[in-house]
User: Which sequence fits this backbone?
């Protein structure tokens, strides 16, 4: 009895074949439609000298859904762009780190200068009050969310103020 249940009956076999044929026909129609849509794009006159290599793979089944020139060897343009973009981002990140170090160093130099200038100008300020006022002036220098142009302008303005406070007494 078990052996007979494993052998497909002719009617269920015919239904299975019909369903498989319908599914295969549907998949073929989808494949043909996809191929036609891709061909409409890559066959444009502006791409006449271009070499195309395309492979679409299902993330779920890892099955190739579409392929064109998948066996040809050439460097895809997107890889070149990604390498170029990665290098540019890496350079920009290194520059940002270096710029932040410069801002940090200048902030400490200006902090000391502002402390000295404010101590001479307003000697009766408490250390906490002096620190709070200097922090209020210099905090934007240390804030990476403040645009570099604004931080640079603040740096120049504070430096000029400190310079003026140091030079003016000398001029009498």
Assistant:
């Amino acid at each position: 009895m078990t052996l007979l249940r494993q052998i497909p009956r002719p009617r269920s076999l015919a239904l299975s074949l019909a369903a498989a044929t319908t599914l295969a026909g549907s998949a073929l129609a989808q494949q043909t439609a996809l191929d036609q849509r891709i061909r409409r794009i890559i066959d444009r006159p502006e791409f006449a000298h271009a070499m195309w290599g395309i492979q679409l793979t299902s993330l779920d089944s890892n099955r190739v859904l579409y392929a064109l020139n998948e066996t040809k060897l050439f460097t895809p343009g997107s890889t070149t762009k990604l390498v170029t973009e990665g290098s540019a981002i890496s350079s920009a990140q290194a520059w940002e780190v270096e710029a932040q170090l410069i801002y940090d160093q200048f902030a400490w130099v200006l902090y000391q200068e502002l402390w000295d200038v404010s101590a001479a100008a307003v000697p009766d300020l408490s250390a906490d009050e002096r620190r709070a006022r200097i922090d209020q002036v210099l905090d934007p220098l240390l804030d990476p969310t403040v645009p570099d142009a604004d931080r640079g302008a603040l740096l120049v303005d504070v430096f000029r103020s400190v310079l003026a406070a140091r030079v003016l007494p000398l001029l009498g």
User: Anything to note?
Assistant: DSSP finds five helices and two strands in the chain. The beta strands are 54-57, 64-68. The first helix runs from residue 2 to 6.
